[in-house]
Design a protein that fits this description.
The complex is a heterodimer of chains A (114) and B (112). By secondary structure, chain A is mainly beta. Chain A contains no helices and 11 strands. The termini of chain A are far apart. Classes of the chains: A mainly beta (114), B mainly beta (112).
């Protein structure tokens, strides 16, 4: 089975711009979660989508949003970028049917905000 | 609030020198505890899931154990290719969905 894929792998943006990141889960997986990883804060949960509905949300400002499509692919959007948004954005997928499932991570999108 | 603390932050080992990594957690009912390995510039790679105290899992030179308050990742006779950051995460039974709360990780360097 192909793993989780994320595009693009690298992005450079300037403050005030917006960005959209994409994630394709493992075939058959219906849950997609997004995480932000920074050297100072580590890995932090952004939100999770299951069957096109947001099922859980972390403590991030409203500038961070996401959506999921009927084929389970997911996108996250960050509007009005700030320097502190520079991070590795990771997407993880699981079947989503029950709790306690293993999540499999993609390679991440490295975002640099200048 | 769920909390995960990993220690030590960094570990330097000689090849063949066994050691253990600690993951202490506070969670409102544990649904699962997960160990991942992360290489620089890559996404976390799944290693183990533990669900209940007393459970143990092994894979090659790695063995994970779980108690009601902490988990250990034992590395036996490590090789240089075991160098990575090891991440521990918990999922709370009261949390909706699959939200994981991560510890800060332990950076392991194995020298030949």
């Amino acid at each position: 089975k192909a793993g989780v894929t994320q595009t693009p792998r690298y992005l450079i943006k300037t403050r005030g711009q917006q960005v959209t990141l994409s994630c394709s889960p493992i075939s058959g997986h219906r849950s997609v979660s997004w995480y932000q990883q920074t050297p100072g804060q580590g890995l932090q949960f952004l939100f999770e989508y299951f069957s096109e509905t947001q099922r859980n949300k972390g403590n991030f400002p409203g500038r961070f949003s996401g959506r999921q499509f009927s084929n389970s692919r997911s996108e996250m959007n960050v509007s009005t970028l700030e320097l502190g948004d520079s991070a590795l954005y990771l997407c993880a997928s699981s079947s989503g049917v029950s709790g306690g499932e293993t999540q499999y991570f993609g390679p991440g999108t490295r975002l640099l905000v200048l | 609030e769920d909390q995960v603390t990993q220690s030590p932050e960094a570990l330097r080992l000689q090849e063949g020198e066994s050691s253990s990594l600690n993951c202490s957690y506070t969670v409102s009912g544990l649904r699962g505890l997960f160990w991942y390995r992360q290489d620089p510039g890559k996404g976390p790679e799944f290693l183990f899931t533990l669900y209940s105290a007393g459970e143990e899992k092994e894979k090659e030179r790695l063995k994970a154990t779980l108690t009601k308050k902490e988990s250990f990742l034992h590395i036996t006779a490590p090789k240089p290719e075991d160098s990575a950051t090891y991440l521990c995460a918990v999922q709370a039974s009261q949390a909706a969905g699959n939200k994981l709360t991560f510890g800060g990780g332990t950076r392991v360097l194995v020298k030949p």
